[in-house]
Design a protein that fits this description.
The structure holds 2 protein chains of 2 kinds. By secondary structure, chain A is α/β, with parallel strands linked by helices. Chain A has 2 domains: 169 residues, D-Maltodextrin-Binding Protein, domain 2, CATH 3.40.190; 158 residues, 3-Layer(aba) Sandwich (D-Maltodextrin-Binding Protein, domain 2), CATH 3.40.190.10. In chain A, 46% of the residues lie in helices and 16% in strands. Chain A contains 18 helices and 10 strands. In chain A, α2 links the parallel β1 and β2. The chains are: A alpha/beta, B mainly alpha. Chain A: InterPro entries: SBP, Sperm_putr-bd.
Chain lengths: 361, 299
């Protein structure tokens, strides 16, 4: 490049940054927003938005606890949020800077109360369930038309799993979701923090372990979509993503998701502001932007997770609002359970138990 | 010795001090701490509110070897170290088995080809390591290219389950680390004087005998260097087993990840890392000695 070119390039960069007087850095889950909203935010507020993504709570937590993450808004799940609040990772929200706060859904606020009492540190972004995704054609071909698609029997009954093994079953590699599911299946309290009760989950997994192909928390999306596997314990919206990818590819695989009738875990992803956020004012502007009913609806219409925003329901597609796997009926909702974080010693027991289950060691 | 010469010699030492010793001491320090729900997630940290001296004394009092004792109490850690060693040894041998003929072929090729062949070995490095490992998922999966090809040719009727087994891990490691094996062997074979083999043959050696006592013997430094370059990073490998391996693939890199991210227990994670480093020091020292011997032999 000649000198003139260099100078004009520098001038261009300088002018580009001059358009935005301030910036907001957001750290959210991957595939978790309608990206056109990002541009809309910049246009409405004149704030430059730097949007990064992560794919596990653990990665986010490690950044937060190391300090100086540089992010203004982060989106941890509620169980993780609770411990992070304890560690002093967040600042309290200033409700006066959030005129759209009233749009929040009080039912969901009530359910997140145990994690963040009074909603002082966070607001709900979206919520969902941990259930079962399956390939309808393959599963009914193997187990017959009366396959228990809406029951944990599908993945915890060795008789079913033995037959499903050849077409492939993935489990989430998330002990804090899988162990409560197994406890719930055998009629124990899924949120038990008693190591003796938790140990009972081992037998449930032991019985089906030989038939599980892999424990992984994101590969099942593509594996389900391209027919590599036929059943996965997974997160609602992820399975819908697999469903969408399969129909895009027109490969003949029909994927669906069910909340098992024995109950399933309900989880919440919360918008929060780190204690050391460089631009807390901009962070409030971003949260307020997301709390806007139409914006929240746009996000849900895109990712197919239920929104924690009640006012948004007016703008959410009927197809989604009436889909019981996304917006469960009152009946199902009553069967959903929540879990709270384990104390450090119990967490170690849980992780160790999970290693034993996975590797046999 | 003048100042500039001293400074020049000092650079590698400063490099080692800043990029190896200081980080190691930080990790070692964390391994002596205890878990806490705070930022950062361990205690004690240096608190100088009562002055530096009191802070340092408090820090010293809070340190102990509890985490190292803990590692000996649970058989998981020993099994993981041993299993990593086993995988690293097998993978190194497999890489040698594949890499040696390639290096030999390259060294025997006409000189005008060699640069292009060398380029071909290095070329994969131009693409991200992560993407190349991901590509293997597409090749090895049940509905992947390999199985589709095998079933199309009729060699197998059922898809071979390779992905998520130890075999997939070996394939991934051999593929990824192959250049580290090929390049040192190639560089020792390239220097090999053809007339030595002719001499061996003239003196009554068989072809195989000459290959063994001349080629293999002279390639030994390259084989040793290549083997260490593969073995050392493989021992702590995390990405390949977590992407290609199954849940049964037990490796210390994965255990370390779990301590750090799932248990959020930085002190135990740091203790695991310190022991891994101590296990690695043995082959690294052997490697250094080998290099030293070679350099002396070259003089």
């Amino acid at each position: 490049m000649n000198k003139l070119g260099t100078i004009s390039a520098v001038a261009l960069i300088a002018s580009a940054s001059a358009v935005f007087a301030e910036e907001v850095r957001v750290y959210n889950w991957s595939d978790y927003i309608d990206e056109s909203l990002l541009e809309k935010f910049e246009q409405e507020t004149g704030i430059e938005l730097i949007y990064d993504v992560f794919d596990s709570n653990e990665v986010l937590e490690t950044k937060l606890l190391a300090g100086g993450s540089g992010y203004d808004v982060v989106v941890p799940s509620a169980t993780f949020l609770q411990r992070q609040i304890q560690a002093g990772a967040f600042q309290k929200l200033d409700i006066s800077q959030l005129p759209n706060h009233g749009n929040l859904w009080s039912d969901i606020q009530a359910r997140t109360e145990p994690y963040d009492p009074g909603g002082e540190y966070s607001v709900n972004y979206m919520w969902g369930t941990t259930g079962i995704g399956f390939n309808i054609g393959k599963v009914t071909e193997i187990l017959g038309e009366d396959a228990p698609l809406d029951s944990w029997d599908l993945v915890f009954d060795p008789a079913n799993m033995e037959k499903l093994a050849e077409c492939g079953v993935y489990f989430l590699d998330a002990p804090t979701e899988m162990i409560p599911a197994a406890l719930n299946y055998i009629g124990e309290d899924p949120d038990s923090h008693d190591p003796e009760v938790i140990a009972k989950a081992e037998a449930v997994f032991e019985a089906v372990r030989p038939y599980i192909r892999k424990f992984h928390s994101s590969e099942y999306i593509n594996a389900l979509a391209n027919g590599d596997i036929c059943v996965a314990v997974g997160w609602s919206g992820d399975v819908f993503l697999a469903q969408f990818r399969a129909s895009e590819a027109e490969n003949g695989h029909e994927i669906d998701y069910a909340i098992p009738n024995e109950g399933a875990q309900m989880w919440f992803d919360q918008l929060a502001i780190p204690a050391d956020a460089p631009n807390p004012e901009g962070a409030h502007k971003f949260i307020n932007f997301i709390l806007n009913a139409e914006n929240a609806a746009a996000a849900t219409n895109y990712v197919w997770y239920a929104s924690g925003n009640e006012a948004a329901q007016e703008f959410i597609d009927d197809e989604i609002l009436e889909y019981p796997a996304v917006y469960p009926s009152e009946d199902t909702l009553n069967k959903l359970y929540i879990t709270t974080p384990y104390p450090p010693r119990v967490q170690r027991t849980v992780t160790r138990l999970w290693t034993t289950i996975k590797s046999g060691t | 010795m003048n100042f500039s010469r001293k400074a020049l010699i000092g650079i590698p030492y400063v490099w080692l001090l800043v990029l190896f010793l200081v980080p190691f001491l930080i990790v070692f320090k964390i391994s002596l701490s205890d878990y806490a729900i705070s930022i950062p997630p361990y205690t004690p940290t240096l608190d100088t509110t009562n002055g530096w001296w009191a802070g340092i004394r408090e820090l010293w009092a809070g340190w102990d070897f509890e985490n190292f004792v803990f590692l000996t109490q649970d058989d998981l850690y020993w099994k993981a170290y041993l299993s990593s060693l086993k995988i690293a040894v097998i993978a190194t041998l497999l890489t040698l088995l594949v890499g040696f003929p390639i290096a030999y072929g390259m060294a025997s090729a006409p000189p005008e080809w060699r640069t292009s062949l060398l380029m071909l070995v290095i070329l994969p490095f131009w693409t991200s390591f992560l993407i190349r490992v991901y590509a293997w998922i597409g090749i090895l999966s049940n509905e992947g290219f390999l199985n589709q090809f095998l079933m199309w040719t009729g060699i197998t009727s059922e898809p071979l389950v390779i992905l998520n087994t130890d075999w997939a891990v070996y394939i991934g490691i051999v593929y990824t680390y192959l250049p580290f094996m090929v390049l040192p062997i190639y560089s020792s074979l390239e220097k090999l004087d053809e007339s030595l083999i002719e001499a061996a043959l003239d003196l009554g050696c068989t072809r195989i005998g000459a290959f063994w006592s001349v080629t293999i013997h002279l390639a030994k430094p390259g084989v040793i260097a290549g083997s260490f370059l593969v073995f050392i990073p493989t021992l702590g490998e995390f990405v390949i087993p977590s992407l290609l391996g199954g849940s049964k693939t037990l490796m210390i890199g994965k255990v370390l990840w779990e301590e750090f991210f799932s248990n959020r227990d930085w002190p135990v994670a740091a203790a695991v890392a310190v022991i891994l480093l101590m296990i690695l020091i043995v082959p690294i020292v052997l490697f250094q000695q080998n290099q030293q011997k070679q350099r002396e032999a070259a003089k």
